[in-house]
Specification:
CATH architecture of one domain: 3-Layer(aba) Sandwich
CATH class of one domain: Alpha Beta
Radius of gyration: 16 Å
Distance between the termini: 7 Å
Number of helices: 5
Largest sheet: 5 strands, antiparallel
Length: about 200
Amino acid sequence: MYNKPTNDCQDKPFIIECEDILLREYMMEDLDAIYQITHEPEIRTFLPGWDVSREQRQEWLINYEMVENRQFLKAAQDGGDVGQLRLRLAIVLKETGECIGWCNTGPKEEMPLPNREIMYGISNRYYNKGYTTQAVQALIRYLFQYTRERELNAVAALHNHASNRVIQKNGFEYVGEIELDQERHHHYKLRKVDIRQHGD
């Protein structure tokens, strides 16, 4: 289910509903959860540089991330040409309303075009519950249905077995190894023509 923002309803957040979670555009109420999750040891290992101060995280959230989300969603609504815009969605647990992670999409500058990537992170308290797989699947469906994107990328460090499993479960095909930030990663691609679209 998609709650697509319209010009006359800008205060209603964009939401994709999944079985156990919601994907929702970032809101101010997510600040502390995102800040805390980015300081968990696993996130610091696999997403170096994300563990910034709360003040820096707040500045990014208010001045860049929430603003660009609205630009992305408007572009998706106005024909689907999202260009180089990024979309950042909080993973929210349906049962409690808690922000437990994120699932984002944007260009990966280090890779050749088309270089749109799907990436994600989740609190270690919610590992192995299928939430990240649900989030990635929902974002893939949204991008292929509502934007002009026809090919998506995903990367995971060689030793990040959980992340590699999530990517594989969502139908990405292995391309090979790629070096990013001086570390080897597995690189995967998923093309719209290679998956079957199902009704929402």
